[in-house]
Amino acid sequence: MRIFFTGGAGKAGKHAVSWLLDRGHRVLNADLVPLDDPRVDNLRVDLTDCGQVYSAMAGMAGLDDLDHPTGVPRFDAVVHFAAIPRILIAPDSEVFRVNTITTYNVIEAAVKLGIPKVIFASSETTYGICFAQGEMLPEYLPVDEDHPTVPHDSYAMSKVANEVTARSFQARSGIDIYGLRINNVIEPHEYADMFPAFVQDPSLRRRNIFAYIDARDLGHMVECCLRNDGLGYQVFNVANADTSVSADAEEIVQRFYPGVPKRREISGHETFYAIDKARKLVGFDPQHGWRKNVRG
């Protein structure tokens, strides 16, 4: 497939782009920062400028398009990962402005150019737990896509607003638009650096609902969404199948979630951030995990 990918140089984006390139897809990285991979085409685009977004998405992916026999081909899909990735990187108002206007610009351009699929990065933060002031408990366990999204911070607010924007564009256009509520992205080298501390102190993972997503499995999820058509508007939790701590489910519930209702039983090291929907609808099957990478 021919993919217009925003934010491909970021922590999550670079792994997803690499995954897609390894499987033969053509990727144009639209970003302010180029991705250092000789297989990818880079185009510097200010995504807050709707004219730049439209021009880039309507244009060539690379110089080889000059020789295309029928003119410049359109993109088959858009993957939108570009964003200010959390609070406390820029002022709150700027986080909200940049994240919402870039998403609007990207989806509007895709719809008007007739691109049939958009996949965009939403976030675990939409559930209001990650960046809440003080402690915020989920309304029930496991946290699935039906859980209320009432965020308390500018980053999560922007992601909820983006989901509303995406749903509106899908309703008026009929294209496929899938939102990924991505949990804490972990790169392979970070297991040895970070997870021993999580084993010693599980409370460090409370704000992430004790979940995580391996960056390679995030790439797999993007490809699952590219392969599956006709689902209209959907949001998916994206996490690995296990928790990010050594404590089992019963220990976590007793210590951190006393009194929180359970909609079904959770056992062993099963994630509290439910991925059943992604498994069922698009065939998501995460394969990488910290337990194979952290000794002791």
Automatic annotation (TrEMBL):
Domain NAD-dependent epimerase/dehydratase: 4-204
Taxonomic superkingdom: Bacteria
Stored Gene3D superfamilies: NAD(P)-binding Rossmann-like Domain
InterPro entries assigned: Epimerase_deHydtase, NAD(P)-bd_dom_sf
PANTHER family named in the record: NUCLEOSIDE-DIPHOSPHATE-SUGAR EPIMERASE (PTHR43103), PUTATIVE-RELATED (PTHR43103:SF6)
Protein name: NAD(P)-dependent oxidoreductase
Organism name: Roseinatronobacter alkalisoli
